[in-house]
Write a structure and sequence with these properties.
The chain is of the alpha+beta class. It is built from 22 helices and 8 strands.
């Protein structure tokens, strides 16, 4: 009788292995990545603080069961909540993403890598308050790695083309780096990342007409909370699924990716954080940032001629394919989530008012009896067309432009010179111009929520790289508690 054969562990799919080994072992050495991560942290927290002014956001926050609290729970910046790390991740992630004003990375897939801060900050703060002290440098390191995982996956793999929302990449990146923060083993982390792919994935239904809705503003919070939950499940020793991607018929590739394997342009490092796009000037979907900037210029040029938006006959937007795919809309816009993903609406508001704020998407503006009809009338006269050169530059790794060009015709028959903006002010190539404005944006968002004394303490802890990196996570987060 032959001896029983020992069980041989099936190897995990290589993309899962690569993510896990990067998250657990890669040493970030780039000073630029750490400096950019600090700026990203400030901008992201500021966006969350601003979102607290909107009842549609704040009503979703707090414990899952009203009145439930956790004595040593993670704190939610700008609030008094003390929550378990899963619900804290949902709260922080929802705040961050609500206004579509945090950072962006654009490629075959688009997304917002700072969404991952919901999971990172919740877990790091919870650990620090429960006998596992971490410092803010650990948070910045996790941010750099989460940005890299999400962004490198996005470079060549279009999840939107198969109807999946980009928050799958938030869940993926957050799970990997949260496992590292929790001190999970390599095997546990492999299990956790495989669970991401066999988990249910969000459809893009809520981002597109006729179903555009507010879930797109809390989808990232949902993804970060799910990531923390999967990491905690894996920490118990729960099994993983080695061929979660490649299993014939039942794996992610066959079920959700049209049978195609993932493609990769570059190894994981710190490229994405170094090249991330900050939204500084406008709370607008990033493909419209340069269009809104051009519209503000045209508003000023009209004023210099003694004209207003009432004199506009038509506007043509020369743009890139991603813009047309995501935010080129005509017809009724049903809610703020619909409006902030309509380039015609954003450009119309900027042409009429000379700017664009988060409040401009609300019913108080869009349904105003005077301003609302003006916006609707003008956006019906704004039309997009793709420029293949703009699309090529959008995908060029050396450029990654987000170009828009506006041509305006007046009712008097005149045509204003085309205004072209290739790179928004938050782009890497305009970083020196953008950093002072990004800090101003952070200070303005602090002022919304805190007294001058508290603002000063937060700024003192935040504006110097070495000071911020050395602060214990729980001590830093406590500065934001109200």
């Amino acid at each position: 009788m032959s001896a029983p054969q020992p069980h041989v562990q099936q190897p995990f799919d290589q993309p899962i292995v690569d993510i896990v080994d990067y998250a657990l072992n890669y040493q970030v050495t780039s000073p630029l990545a750490y400096e950019t991560a600090r700026l990203c942290l400030l901008d992201t927290l500021g966006c969350g603080l601003q979102a607290l002014e909107f009842p549609a956001c704040s009503k979703l926050l707090g414990p899952l069961v009203p009145g439930l609290t956790m004595h040593h729970g993670a704190r939610v910046p700008g609030t008094s909540y003390r929550l378990d790390p899963v619900q804290a991740a949902f709260n922080i992630g929802t705040m961050i993403r609500w206004l579509d004003y945090n950072d962006t990375f654009l490629a075959a897939e688009w997304g917002h890598p700072s969404d991952n801060l919901g999971a990172i900050l919740a877990v790091a703060d919870w650990l620090s308050r429960n006998g596992h002290p971490l410092r803010m440098r650990d948070v910045l390191t996790a941010m750099i790695k989460a940005h890299e995982i999400q962004g490198c996956m996005a470079l060549e793999n279009s999840f939107n083309q198969v109807g999946l929302d980009h928050v799958i990449l938030v869940k993926l990146a957050s799970t990997a780096v949260v496992c590292q923060l929790l001190g999970l083993t390599r095997e546990q982390t492999l299990n956790a990342v495989s669970l991401v792919f066999v988990d249910g994935q969000s459809l893009r239904t809520y981002r597109h007409a006729p179903n555009t809705g507010s879930r797109k503003s809390w989808a990232a919070g949902d993804a970060t909370s799910r990531a923390v939950r999967l990491a905690l499940i894996a920490s118990t020793g729960e099994m993983g699924y080695p061929s979660a991607l490649t299993a014939k018929t039942w794996g992610f590739y066959d079920v959700s990716f049209k049978g195609q394997p993932f493609r990769f342009q570059r190894p994981y490092g710190s490229y994405v954080m170094e090249n991330v796009l900050f939204k500084i000037s406008f709370p607008a979907e990033f493909h419209a940032q340069t269009a809104v900037e051009a519209a503000v210029t045209l508003h000023r040029q009209l004023a210099e001629q003694g004209l207003s938006a009432d004199a506009i006959q038509s506007v043509t937007i020369r743009t890139h394919s991603a813009c047309i795919r995501i935010i080129d809309k005509q017809g009724p816009l049903r809610n703020p989530a619909d409006r902030d993903h309509c380039i015609q609406y954003m450009v119309a508001v900027a042409l009429i008012t000379g700017g664009l704020t988060a409040q401009d998407y609300e019913d108080s503006v869009a349904c105003d009896p005077v301003l609302g009809p003006k916006i609707d009338s003008l956006r019906a006269r704004i039309h997009c067309s793709e420029d293949p050169a703009f699309t090529a530059d959008y995908h060029d790794p050396a450029k990654r432009s987000i170009a828009n060009a506006l041509t305006l015709h007046t009712t008097g028959g005149a045509q204003l010179p085309e205004v072209v903006v290739e790179y928004p002010i938050g782009h890497r190539l305009r970083r020196s111009d953008g950093i002072p404005l990004l800090v101003d944006k952070f200070q303005a968002n602090l002022d919304r929520r805190f007294s001058p004394e508290v603002c000063d303490r937060i700024l003192e802890a935040s504006l110097d790289q070495s000071i911020l990196e050395a602060i214990p996570v729980d001590q830093y987060v406590s500065l934001y508690v109200v």
